[in-house]
């Protein structure tokens, strides 16, 4: 039976009428009582005694009357002799109340056991005498479990699950003591969680995480404890009011129903079947208040789930761990969890305030690796998605700047102006400036782009370009500019296939891991005498795969990231700056300036006057305090292919590709170029360093599919570097996505 319910982050699996599993499993909605007693069960225990039988009621005679009782069934009075349609007061909820229903529902969810299970005291790993006598195990099976049939047990750690895949199995609970053990709830859930640990100089505290963000919570209402007798399969035909006490599975004689008085009897093995299905998408409200589409995609498993795996097991399996280059203190994990919830008083557990609290008496966890398929919407129309994300980002930054300018006006900024770094309002097209070479750069830029547009039939701005001056130093130490060198490539969307670790691969399946990047190296010189042209000498071409990760510890990111936030589309290297800008300088640094400005304004003006929204402050803080990680992987295997008539074919080096003259409109200038394609085999990538050259490719490293969530994102891009003998380097970046189909 597929009884997954959904509420503020709890997902309902979609009903799909395909395959044997879909036809066999029931799909129902929970009743109000079932919902109240399981999903929305509050953190505060009640005084209800489940061990005492309820009172028996007798049927009393009912006297009828032609007059309707003034107290209605719903607890409010119905006006007499007045049309309901004409009375606003007849509706039990006011307009104000109904408009805040979603907020109230969210608050209800925030105070439930399901939402806060990770915060409850957990006796599983303690020496608690009562808890130690409970044994809870999770078993995953190949197909739907059925009474009386032998299940085919599988090891879920050998499989990668994707959207639409079923997770079948059963949970067994055994009381090994000689006395009944009480409980309040049994939850069987499938959860997806982003966990951020406290990293104190490399020491990770997995017991007290900094943040636990549950983006997926699916509850199997059949497997979990409820009062109702639910038909799990379409072949079942049970009485919903029959508790089925004493019913067993003839295959192994396990008890299929738990005591109605919520007691685990001594020596009895209880078994609860479960079925989950990985959803296609997350709920929209998981990304509130921003409602970003990409944040509702199912993210892949990444990082080490230290809270789910014992440290001794992690150490023993260190060599076989998946190297996905994640943050050491952050992970995205999925698991099937079985939790026995009880009152602290029943387990002789002392709480900090001596009040009776809910605790996790026993817990079992089964990690599930999820690698979702790529959303085709982004692959079919990437430019539109990037443009939309860029507009959203610019509007967000404009609102911040407007608020800061308003605050500066309040502090008489005109008489005492504050310096505000408003760079990178949009990362697209940001450039460096140089006054001495500005004119020469402008002429060269115009000529090179005109030539690119003519040859490639594209817009001049649709390129990634790096431009620098080619200089010659004399014996006296003076420097003479001989020309302008430019490295460019068209703006294209490149992608490779996700390659699973060896243990998860399908035998014989081939994966696309190569891309071909068209490159144009241009040289622009003043003068028309070709005999006096001194060409820059090329030393080498290098390529790297940049694995970029960004994470917020607490607050959700307010916008979606694009590759143009990771590097500039154009760079003019006329200074001593050796490295192009990255996400930290283009995005994070300006936001750090914004947060400093806002804090100063609040201190000087007070927020009562400034009225800066709390949500906007959190949004800015999420970016300014974000953590980033860059891992540059060397790509040693690449081929150079020239399509020029004079040098067509493969080349071992850029040096062997000749400079060819290009026609330009400026008669007093000359333009030369080298045009070739760089074909990169990313399956040869490896970490830098001599010791890592033998640990190459995707047998050793894992590139999880590109993704973005509210707290974490993973992006990739290619870095192509041409080094010259003069010591200068030209660098261009091209975006890359890792897709899973």
From TrEMBL:
* InterPro entries referenced in this protein's UniProt entry, alphabetically: Bul1-like, Bul1_C, Bul1_N
Where does the record place the Bul1 N-terminal domain? Answer: 18-418
Please state every residue range assigned to the domain named Bul1 C-terminal: 516-740
| Coiled-coil regions, chain positions | none
User: Short name of one Pfam family for this protein?
Assistant: Bul1_N
Q: What is this protein called?
A: BUL1-like protein
According to its UniProt entry, this protein's organism is: Scheffersomyces stipitis (strain ATCC 58785 / CBS 6054 / NBRC 10063 / NRRL Y-11545)
